[in-house]
Fold this sequence. Notes:
Elements: E1 20-21, E2 24-25, H1 40-43, H2 47-57, E3 59-62, H3 80-88, H4 96-106, E4 111-114, H5 121-134, E5 147-150, H6 154-168, E6 175-178, H7 184-193, E7 197-200, H8 202-211, E8 221-224, H9 227-232, H10 236-243, E9 251-256, H11 261-270, E10 275-279, E11 290-296, H12 302-313, E12 321-324, H13 328-340, E13 345-348, H14 354-365, E14 371-374, E15 389-392, H15 399-406, E16 416-422, H16 430-439, H17 446-451, E17 464-465, E18 468-469, E19 484-486, E20 499-501, H18 510-519, H19 524-530
Parallel strand pairs: 4-9, 4-10, 5-7, 5-8, 6-7, 8-9, 11-16, 12-14, 12-15, 13-14, 15-16, 19-20
Antiparallel strand pairs: 1-2, 3-10, 11-19, 17-18
Amino acid sequence: MSYYGNTAKPYGGFYSDQGMQNGVSHSKPKFAKHFYTEHTAVSHRSREDIASFFELNGISVTGNNIPNPILTFEESTYPAHIVNYFKKQSWKAPTSIQSQGWPVALSGRDLIGIAQTGSGKTLSFVLPAIIHIGAQPPLAYNDGPICLILAPTRELAQQVASVALEFGQLNNVRNVCVYGGAPRGPQIRDLRRGAEICIATPGRLIDFLDQGQINLKRCTHLILDEADRMLDMGFEPQIRKIIQQITPGRQTLMFSATWPKEIRRLASEFLQDPIRINIGSLNIHANHNITQIVDVLTEYEKENKLLTLLEEISKEPENKTIIFVETKKKCDTIGRSMRRYGWPVGIIHGDKSQQERDWVLNEFRSSKTTILIATDVASRGLDVDDIRFVINFDFPKSCEDYVHRIGRTGRANSKGTAYTFFTSNNFKQSRELVEVLTEANQQINPKLIEMTNIRGGGSTSRGFSRGGFSQRGGSRFRGSHHGNTYGSAKSGFQSKSDTHYGGAYNYNQHDNLHSSNTNGNSNSHTTYQNGYRNNALG
């Protein structure tokens, strides 16, 4: 039985009160935010069964009055047309974050969700937001959105908007997506037409608020997606300014891949008695469906390594690849050089226009281009399910970003492979990288382990001439490689001068090897990764 939509109002156990925040009046009509009636099967589930479910799927939950998790879509008591839509998509069961997150969000509680990329978190907050909207009075002229979703990048905002559109169409809920790098006019027109959900990057939203193009007087449901990334990008002042314009009685959901002290501080200030759901370890951890291979080498050796590796990847039947580099300039330099060598590549970074970025991503999604070179702008929010390989040409500034980069592959419980070029310039991240590899049961290059003891370091070698790829160290594809490769024994990623540790990896043996690395572990998080095939991944 369903108690959602406008019929849920009699069941709304929590209502906002009029109040003041930072001198701004927040006098508003009362609004409902409790719509959850527990399914009988959920109510009768024993503590032992719940504990077993949590252990099996790597779930930990903290907070007061925690509702029981749901194990099937039917137990969610969503309206029949939504449950039927799940079935049409051949989704078997909710993901872990959805199993526990939906009951919490639908109960009107503030929520903190800590989950890795590809865990279904987008749908875990979009659907409760739609149910929340259905219980509120319709928007009047010049009313702002009922639900505000903040995201760090335009790519992630667009991904969230696509999910909101997909399920909003089932429930007559409109959304508008506002972000920088795109013309303001169309976004302003969409805002004036009215939309119940606004998905926004902080910078563009602040601009529109200052110009009076949007107001948040009707906003009662706030979602912060990838909050850790927003803080990393310096958006904390904008987030604070935005939240000051939303009623204190709102419901707030915060999602993050990590749980650093900055996120804890933000949560303590803006969330009321939240329930925190953690999927997997609180430490930084990577998707166990991804085979991680780290090549310890010098800066100037990267070029020939990359070209040789791409030649071998191109022989694979599924070879969609994304290459991450550190700077926009290097992104363009590598892209131009690869095109001269005949590689059809797409390039995306923050200086590209939105129109160009959309075109490049569409070409990549449709496999018209199978190689994408990007800066970290694409490390989060790039929703392409069939990326098979990730190459970190430059190691990122933090292991959190490393995990998000490689998370572009291995999505929706598929397998993937991540190659990383690691130099002495990156030694400060070596210890944390070893911890990530160890947690994911990966074989570790001894050279990387040795680097954890380095107290100094740095290399002045540079691999790029002004013309693009330099040709020091050998020919375009068969150069002499003096780095230390670990895990790859196929000829394209080694030469006689390479030193290999273990030497067990072969592209053609990838599935068998990787299966032994993940399924052979009794760790409950690994079990979670392998036990949720064909689930709803938001």
